[in-house]
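pipeline: protein-struct stage 2 | run 1193 | MarR family transcriptional regulator
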Amino acid sequence: MTKPRSCPALQLDNQLCFALHSTSLLMTRVYKPMLQEIGLTYPQYLAMLVLWEGDGITVSEISARLLTDPGSVTPLLKRLETEGLITRTRRSDDERVVELRLTDRGRALQAKAECFPTNILSASHQTPEQIAALKDQIVALREALQKLV
């Protein structure tokens, strides 16, 4: 049996998608112990980041910010509500719209998470300028890809 001819363009280590995917997995692992200390999962942390930016947003708004559909973010939000970090209330003028508000406990959690960016920067062994440039490149890539889907 002959070995298939290797095509460099199809080698795993040459794939941008794999570099992004594997880095994302590792980033989540680096966050995990910090998040365990404050009782959040990584997806819950992302939702809390959005709420810390602006309290009183809707499920649709947080879903758009997280680039996900409302149906998949709802269970995560219900869990945050069960944990006493947010409240979910339907608008009286339109019951289809659910507003999200931080509780005092949810607001207090922000102070515990304020060291996370510094910890991640330290773990990356990059300068703030390198991280900012990388983030800008990734965001530009994301925006280009969003136009295709």
